[in-house]
Structure formats: C-alpha cells, structure tokens
Specification:
This protein is mainly alpha-helical. The protein is 57% helix and 12% strand. The protein is built from 14 helices and eight strands. The strands form three sheets. A three-stranded parallel β-sheet has the order 3-4-5. The chain has a three-stranded mixed β-sheet with strand order 6-7-8. Helix 8 links the parallel strand 7 and strand 8. It is globular and about 65 Å long. The two termini are 29 Å apart.
C-alpha cells in the first residue's frame, strides 16, 4: 500500500520526497526524479518536516516510532507524523502523547481501499487531528487519496477505520452465509447475487462478493486474511476496553480466526467463506 501512495505523493505534491523501506526492491520502486530513496530511516526523521507511515500493524509502527533510532528520537517541534497504518486506538493515543511532549504531532490517518485502488488514487483516508493540522495536511493527503475525511480529533480516524472494517467483515460473512445456504437449497449463486444487487446492493457485494465469493477466488497478494484478523483483533480490544458485547463482531472474529488457522492466512480475506462452509460444500 505504501509504495503506490509514496509514488502518488512524489508525483503530485511538487515537493521533495524521501522514501524508506526495509526492502531494497520496494525502495527502488519509489526512487525517481521527484523521490530520493534511502536505506537510512533516520534520514527521513531528520530531513522531513512531515513523515508518512504505511506499515502492517501495531508492532511495526511501535518500532518505527519508539525504537532506539526511531521517529520520536529525532522529532522536533513542528514535526508531523502521519500514520496511514491501521493500529489499535490505545497505541494511537500513546504515540500522540509521546510526540506532543516534544512539540511534534502524531496524526492517525488510516486508509480504506484495495492495492489497485491505491495505485489509481481511488482510496479514502480518514484523519484524526485538529482542524489546523488537517488543513495543513489536506493538500498532501489529496495527492494520495480521492476522498479525504476529517473524522475529528486525535484517535477518531483510527476508530472510524476499525469500525469500517468491522462492518465490512460482517457484510462479507453475511454474503458468504447466503451463498452457502443458497447452494445447499439449490439456488444458483449468480442468480442469488443478482437478486441481492437489486435488493441490497453494496460495496461488499460488488467488490468482495462478485469478484471473490462467487467465483471462489482468494489469491495471495491482495489484502490477506491475517491482516483482516489483525484489524478485527484491534476492534475486539476496543469494544472490550469499553465493556461492550457485540455478538456479530465476535462471530466474524471467530470466522477469521478459523480461516487463518486453516492455513489461509495469506489468502484474500473473503476466504472466510471456507470457515462458513466448514463440514460441507464450499462456495
């Protein structure tokens, strides 16, 4: 996700960009006239007033920010760290407080969209920060996203993204259940989904139902099941911290756990349909 976001930023911002990734090939793909690639993450921290992160999850963000030679160690007054990763709310709050102590800002700005959508700048970004910082960042975020939403104060972008994935996962689970039940009752899957498009159309149906569930196609290299499970783990942490019971969320979390345990962790995450169909016909 971060590579095409970086290339879009470098190509549109009209500002010098420095790119770092631990993978030399990923760095090389970002290098160009508008973007210098570096193998030294500290150079990004030292030389950039605004730093964007796009990392797999909490552990990687924590290391990048709080490691011995991480972003916090080099942060100075006025530095803005914009985290486009999906992380727990507790970590968002911890990092916002840590950077604030140095006069810097940590902004949660997670991304919604597919890998191809990132390259085409068709993603959405949900930012959590105050209005002044959002106004400063908006032109840069616009370079990477078709839709940029100011969700509110710090943490609100993180919560919005987690709830988006919660609703999306439950929607896809419902579609998988409908497909399995329909098959077993003798209904053709294409005709069933056509009826669903006419009666309850949705992004989940078009993006995940028609392209993955219906053909039973769950390739690697797209958003994998283990990543969705990671995001749902963060939702579980959030709802438990608030003392809530969410039956639908808990059910789909269990489906994702069984999907990963079945060896499908690297498969496109609608592979949860295999957990729905356990013990019988697969969609």
């Amino acid at each position: 996700m971060g590579g095409p976001m970086c290339r879009n930023l470098a190509g549109r911002a009209g500002l010098p960009v420095i790119a770092h990734d631990i993978d030399p090939e990923a760095r090389a793909r970002c290098a160009g006239r508008e973007c210098a690639a570096t193998g030294d993450p500290a150079r990004v921290a030292r030389d950039c007033a605004t730093v964007f992160l796009s990392l797999p999850g909490a552990a990687e963000v924590r290391r990048a920010c709080l490691g011995g030679d991480g972003l916090l160690a080099h942060a100075r007054a006025g530095t803005v760290v914009v985290d486009c990763s999906t992380v727990p709310l507790a970590l968002t709050r911890e990092l916002a407080a840590a950077f604030a102590e140095k006069g810097a800002r940590y902004v949660d700005a997670p991304v919604a969209g597919t890998v191809q959508a990132v390259a085409d700048r068709k993603i959405s970004i949900m930012a959590g920060t105050d209005g002044e910082i959002f106004a400063r960042l908006a032109p840069l975020l616009d370079c990477m996203a078709e839709t940029v939403l100011h969700c509110g104060e710090s943490g609100s972008g993180t919560v919005t993204k987690l709830l988006l994935n919660m609703v999306l996962a439950q929607s896809v689970a419902a579609l998988a259940e409908a497909l399995v039940l329909g098959h077993r009752a003798g209904v053709d899957g294409e005709r069933l989904f056509e009826a669903l498009r006419n009666g309850c159309d949705s992004f989940a149906l078009r993006q995940h139902g028609m392209t993955a569930l219906l053909p039973g196609c769950f390739p690697e290299g797209r958003f994998p099941a283990r990543y969705m499970l990671k995001d749902l783990d963060y939702v579980m942490e959030l709802k438990e911290s608030l003392g809530m019971t969410l039956a639908g969320m808990e059910t789909v979390h269990g489906l994702m756990e069984r999907t990963v345990a079945a060896g499908l962790g690297d498969a496109y995450w609608p592979a949860l349909s295999h957990a729905v169909g356990e013990g019988g016909e697969q969609p």
